[in-house]
């Protein structure tokens, strides 16, 4: 697998992980668990499942566009940002909350 395709795959995995973790957090802790006000508004309107599915489909679609346009460094940068800014903090919170 070439590095660009691997980056896209990791980006999609992080999107799915963030969507699942966010869904569970919203179910357990309520709407305030979502920090993005746009996504939180859509969760309030449509529910957590449809809103997060839509948000993650859009994000994955945008990642695919970046991949197809050959902007692999941008995609790699966004993947790192997602790890540090979304998935990483959720995983840290889960380890702190787990006895």
Characterization of this structure:
The chain is an all-alpha fold and 99 residues long. It has one domain. It contains 4 helices and no strands. It has helices at residues 3-29, 37-46, 48-68, 72-97. The protein starts with a helix and ends with a helix. The mean pLDDT is 93.
Task: List the defining traits of the structure above.
mainly alpha; 4 helices; 99 residues
Quaternary: single chain
Structural class: mainly alpha
Q: Could you tell me the number of beta strands? A: 0
Distance from first to last alpha carbon: 39 Å
Estimate the global geometry from the Cα principal axes.
Answer: globular
- Average pLDDT across residues? 93
- The value of Rg in angstroms is 14 Å
Q: What level of helicity do the residues show?
A: over 70%
| Uncertain residue ranges | none
Q: How much β-strand is present in the residues?
A: under 5%
* H/E topology pattern: HHHH
